[in-house]
Specification:
It is built from three helices and two strands, in the order βαβαα. The radius of gyration is 13 Å and the shape is globular. 38% of the residues lie in helices and 17% in strands. By secondary structure, it is an alpha+beta fold.
Length: 72
């Protein structure tokens, strides 16, 4: 079974925030490449966190999300 959005990124028209961490197994450049292929996306990187950024740095993660939503 294969899964992924790689072939569909260009079709996403909505404002999108890709939140990642600096120590994730998916590189920052990979996240930036995903965002560049979308019509209206940006990337936010949370420092000192791993793949579970929502748990590792929940306070920072929440601020990033709230800032994104408030600037809509």
């Amino acid at each position: 079974m294969e899964w992924g959005l790689g072939d569909k990124l260009e079709t996403i028209p909505h404002k999108t925030l890709i939140v990642g961490s600096d120590m994730d197994y998916m590189s920052i450049s990979h996240k930036e490449e995903y965002a560049s292929r979308m019509q209206n996306a940006s990337v936010a990187i949370v420092s000192n966190s791993r793949h579970g950024v929502v748990m590792d740095q929940y306070d920072v993660f929440n601020k990033v999300i709230l800032n994104f939503l408030e600037n809509e």
